[in-house]
Write the C-alpha cells for this entry.
Amino acid sequence: MFVPSVTNPIGDFVRNLVPQVTAYLPVAFQSETLDSVVAFLINAVICIIAVCAVNIGSAPILIYMERKVCAHVQCRLGPMRLGWHGTIQTIADVLKMLFKEVYAPSGADKLMFYTAPMIVLIAPFMVCALIPFSKDLVVADVSMGIPLIIAVNGFGVLGILLGGWSSNNKYSLLGALRSGAQIISYEISFAMILLFVVMISGSTNLMDITMSQQGTVFDWWIFKIPVLGFIAFILFFISSTAEMNRAPFDIAEAEQELTGGYHTEYNGTPFAMFYLAEYIALVTNSALATTCFLGGFHAPCIGIAAVDNVLNMVPGLVWFFGKVFFMIWCYMMVRWTFVRPRVDQLMDFEWKFLLPVNLVLLTAGAAWIAISG
Amino acid sequence: MFPGLQLPELALSFPLGGMDIAFYAVAIVMLVTAVFTVAVKNILQSAVFLIFSFVTTAILYLLLHAEFIALAQVMVYIGGVVIFVVFTILLTSHLGEDAFATKIPRVFAAFALSIAFVFVMVKCLLPMPELSSGVVASAPDYSSLQNFAMRLLGYTQDSFIIPFEVVSVLLLMTLICAITIARKTKDEVEKEKEVKQ
C-alpha cells in the first residue's frame, strides 16, 4: 500500500522512531502499513506546527519592530509603558483584537466576506513551507519551488478583490480594484526576477539555489555576477514591496484617500487575518530575498580561514534569521522614508520602466552565462 | 488484548492506498464545487466556486505526478483567467444581482443532454483496456521540469522549439493589438486637455 511521506531529515527520524515505539504494542497493531501511516501523520502535524509557529510567532515581533522603527525614524520613542520598552504592548493589542465582536455590515455578502481573509492567508503560508531555513530545516523540498511561489501568489489578489467587493462599500471596492491592478502588474516583474535567479543558478528548487551560493560572500548571487546581481536585487526589492502593498506602494489602503482601502469594513479576527497576511508576506518575501540573493543560511565567509571557522560555528538558522531581519528592517526603513506615488505614476513605473529593465536584465543574464560558461 | 483483530484488508478497494483515498476525496470536492459553480445564484460566488474547482483539478494533476501542468493550471486559470473574470464582474455593477429564472423545458433539455453525454462517455471509455488497469507506465522523472523543458525547447527530432516560438509571436501580436485598442487617439487626448483647462 502506497503512503505518501515527508522527505526531510526530521521526517526520516520520525519514520525510524515509529517502528521502535510500536514494537511495544500488542501484535495485532503491528504492521508496516500502520507504521508508515502513523509516521506520515506525525510528520504532517510537525510540519503544520512548524509553519504556523514561524508565521504566527513572527507577527507580534514584527509589529513591535515596525512601531519602534517608525517611532525612531520620526524621532519618537514608540511604545514604552507596557513591559520593558513596551515589549508586551503588541501582545495586549493582539488580545484586544481577538476579543472584539465580529460582525459584517448589512448588505454584505456574508460567505464571501468571511472567506476572503482566509484566501489571503493561503499564499504566505504555502511560500513559508518552501523556504529552507537551514540545511535540514525545510518543510517541502520540492523540485518546482519557484513556479509554485509564482502560482500561489495569485491567491493574494483574489482575497483582496473578494474582500473589497463583499464589504458593500465604495471605498473598499475602490481600494480592492486599485490593489488588484497593482499586484497583477507587479507580479510580472516579481516573477521575472525569480526567473533571472532560476536562470543563473540553474535550478527551481530553493535548496539548490541556496547551495549554489556556497563559499564566501562573493559567491552570493548579489555579488557573484558583477553589477547585474545588485540591479536584480534592487528590482526584486521594489517589486516585492509593491507585491506586499506596503508603503510607498500602499495605494490600496491609502488612509488619507480611501479610509483604509479593502479592509475598511473588517474588524476583530477577520481584520487580524488581513493584518497577519501582510506581516507574514513581509517574512516570506524577506526570506525569499535572502535565499535568492543573500546566500540563504550560509555564513558570510570572507575567505580568511581563521575568521571563517568562527563564523561557520554559528548555526545556519541564526544566519538565516539575521539576514531576514536585516531585509525586514530595510523594508521598514523604506516604508517610513519615501512618499507615496500617485496611482497612475505607480502603473507607469511598472509598465514603462520596471518591465523593460527586467527584460534587458534577463537578456544580459543570459549573455553573462554564455560568456562565462 | 484483541486476539482476533486483524487490520482490514485495504488492498481490494484501494490498490494504491493513500493515493486512491486522496483521489476519491479530491474528485468529490471537485464535483461538488463544479455543481455549485452552475447552481449558485450570485455570479461572483459562482466565480469563487470555479476557482475551487480549478484548484482541485490542479491537485488531481499533482496526484498524477504532472507537477508542471498542475502549477500551470493554477498560474493560468486562477492567477489569470479567474482574476480577470472577477475584475469584470466587479466593474459591471448590478450584474447577477437578480437571479435569472430558467424555464422548465430548458432544465429538462439540460438534463437530457448531460445524461446523453454521460452515456456516451461510459460506452466509449469503459471498454478501453488501458483505462481499466491503473498501471503507471511512464518513467519516474518523465514529467520533471528538466525533461519537460528539454523536450519543449530542444531542437532534436521530437522536440517543440518551433511551435513554441510561433506561439510567442502570436502572444506578442495579441499584446500589440490590446495596446492599440486601449490606447487613446490624438483627438481624445486633445479633448481631455480641453476638459481639464
